[in-house]
């Protein structure tokens, strides 16, 4: 009987579980369950979905270790009894945009404030980061803020739930997710209680009494499963932020870039040194192995295509067919896809716009093409921001739900100006978590060398004119919103 490990991806839209052979990485079974809609979610819904996905994956009775990768930044505020104080504000909830501005102003504002934050944490605060959500809580719901005894992130809280513990001191996380809070010094690898204090408008002494999950090493066991559920045999890994878990699942190293098109659009790259970008385009997070994982993240990923398909009355295959039937540039039509506001660039109150509609372009093919091109142009901007920080780019791998779109796969090389590789459809975040679990189990210095991911390489003729048109129109929207 092979030794089995479980990897979990608790992402924005769903929870996925993969069970793999710890030695070879071979996929044994899977399960998934949906998450509720919305940018404010009761963490209990993630727990229910995790239990459902575990059951769908055949349970954990024969599994030796598990790790969780999760959507980053979500604020899970706990009281002294370990109860959730209010629904979690997710990474894509923009109500804390003013709080982000205020936190930057308090350090000098503008480039001075942004520079101070990158020096302290690696990132400029935007509404996505937990620190801004805590400031929002302090200002909008002071009674709730007063009750905060611990702050966790989605993956930390779920790992704690898997353990069955109700002791706040058992909360544990990893560097990758801690680095996305905005109160963690990513370069030094330690919490900044002064920033937690500032966020909550309390003294640093009071902030030090708030429990933040212990930051475990990349392959450190953080507990065991809940014995009451029959999981006492299960070793628990520290888990990771979803993007860091994906990097582990893909086996990325310096020079490799992943472009993930899930709910978020993410450009990520492994870096041996911390990245600090005061422009805020690139966030200087950590990875799940001891290195760094700068990201450029948009709020508008797969749902741009979900929305376009719905508008055109087609499914995803139909949308891809329409987009591929159109010419590059969509007859002059551009979609600036800020449907949920935007984070990169930081335009939390922006809305989306079709620009350049004419009688020639007002047809389903060009609308579909503009949707795919607009989505990819936002990601190309993120890639450019990454290279401008000196991050090397040798290969680009497309992952996430919308990377299954034939149109995304075919049009990406033209917009990015580089070939892309597309791995077989899979759950790379959950796979990375499973690899971490196998690493924890092995006790070895490096993650297990599972067989490499099979990929297909796709090339295309670059279409810089499409990006130029997009850039000009993006600036119109930035000036407007
Ligand atoms: N073939 C496809 N073409 C375009 N989008 C797709 C396709 N298949 C799935 N998606 C979209 O991918 C998203 C889910 O991807 P996923 O990476 O699991 O997201 P998340 O990690 O944010 O929960 C959904 O918005 C879904 O509609
Ligand atoms: O905010 C970020 C990263 O900074 C997002 O990438 C979230 O981590 C959500 O990821 P998906 O659920 O869209 O994959």
TrEMBL record:
EC numbers, comma separated: 2.7.1.17
Which CDD domains does the UniProt entry name for this protein?
ASKHA_NBD_FGGY_BaXK-like
Q: Which residues belong to any copy of the Carbohydrate kinase FGGY N-terminal domain? A: 5-249
Keyword set, alphabetical order: ATP-binding, Carbohydrate metabolism, Kinase, Nucleotide-binding, Transferase, Xylose metabolism
Q: Which residues form a coiled coil?
A: none
Domain Carbohydrate kinase FGGY C-terminal, residue spans: 258-439
Catalytic center residues: 242
Q: Which GO terms describe its biological process?
A: D-xylose metabolic process; xylulose catabolic process
A matching Pfam family: FGGY_N
* GO molecular-function terms, A-Z: ATP binding; D-xylulokinase activity
Family matches, as PROSITE patterns: FGGY_KINASES_2
Q: Where does substrate bind?
A: 72-73
Q: Which InterPro entries match?
A: ATPase_NBD, Carb_kinase_FGGY, Carb_kinase_FGGY_CS, FGGY_C, FGGY_Carb_Kinase, FGGY_N, Xylulokinase
Name the protein family.
Belongs to the FGGY kinase family.
Role this protein plays: Catalyzes the phosphorylation of D-xylulose to D-xylulose 5-phosphate.
Question: What is this protein identified as?
Answer: Xylulose kinase
Q: What's the source species for this entry?
A: Nesterenkonia jeotgali
């Amino acid at each position: 009987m092979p030794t089995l490990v479980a990897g979990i991806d608790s992402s924005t839209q769903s929870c996925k579980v993969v069970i793999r052979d710890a030695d070879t990485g071979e996929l044994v079974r899977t399960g998934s369950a949906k998450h509720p809609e919305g940018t404010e979610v009761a963490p209990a819904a993630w727990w229910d979905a995790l239990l459902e996905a575990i059951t769908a994956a055949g349970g954990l009775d024969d599994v030796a270790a598990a790790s969780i990768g999760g959507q980053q930044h979500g604020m899970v505020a706990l009281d002294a009894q370990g109860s959730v104080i209010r629904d979690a504000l997710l990474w894509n909830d923009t109500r804390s945009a003013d709080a982000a501005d205020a936190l930057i102003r308090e350090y000098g504002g503008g480039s001075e404030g942004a520079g101070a934050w990158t020096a302290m944490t690696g990132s400029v605060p935007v509404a996505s980061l937990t620190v801004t959500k805590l400031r929002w809580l302090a200002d909008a719901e002071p009674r709730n803020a007063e009750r905060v005894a611990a702050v966790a992130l989605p993956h930390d809280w779920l790992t704690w739930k898997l353990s069955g513990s109700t002791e706040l001191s058992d909360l544990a996380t990893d560097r990758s997710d801690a680095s996305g809070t905005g109160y963690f010094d990513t370069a030094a690898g330690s919490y900044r209680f002064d920033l937690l204090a500032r966020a909550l408008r309390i003294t640093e002494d009071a902030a030090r009494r708030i429990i933040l999950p212990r930051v475990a090493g990349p392959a450190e066991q953080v507990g065991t499963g809940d014995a009451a559920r029959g999981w006492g045999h299960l070793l628990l890994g520290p888990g990771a932020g979803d993007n860091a878990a994906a990097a582990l699942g893909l086996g990325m190293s310096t020079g490799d870039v992943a472009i993930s098109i899930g709910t978020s659009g993410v450009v990520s790259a492994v870096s041996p040194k911390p990245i600090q970008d005061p422009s805020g385009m690139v966030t200087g997070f950590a990875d799940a192995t001891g290195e760094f994982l700068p990201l450029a993240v948009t709020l508008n990923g797969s749902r741009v295509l979900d929305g376009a398909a719905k508008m055109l009355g087609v499914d995803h295959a139909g949308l891809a067919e329409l987009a591929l039937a159109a010419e590059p540039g969509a007859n002059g039509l551009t979609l600036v896809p800020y449907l949920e506001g935007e984070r990169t660039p930081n335009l939390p109150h922006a809305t989306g716009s079709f620009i350049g509609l004419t009688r020639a372009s007002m047809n389903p093919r060009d609308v579909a093409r503009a949707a795919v091109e607009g989505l990819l142009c936002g990601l190309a901007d993120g890639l450019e921001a990454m290279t401008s920080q000196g991050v090397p780019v040798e290969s680009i791998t497309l992952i996430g739900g919308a990377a299954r779109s034939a149109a995304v796969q075919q049009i990406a090389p033209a917009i990015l100006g580089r070939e892309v590789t597309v791995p077989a459809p899979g759950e790379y975040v959950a796979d990375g978590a499973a690899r971490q679990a196998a690493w924890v189990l092995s006790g070895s210095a490096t993650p297990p060398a599972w067989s490499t991911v099979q990929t297909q390489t796709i090339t295309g003729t670059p279409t810089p004119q499409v990006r130029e048109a997009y850039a000009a129109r993006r600036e119109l929207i930035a000036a407007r919103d």
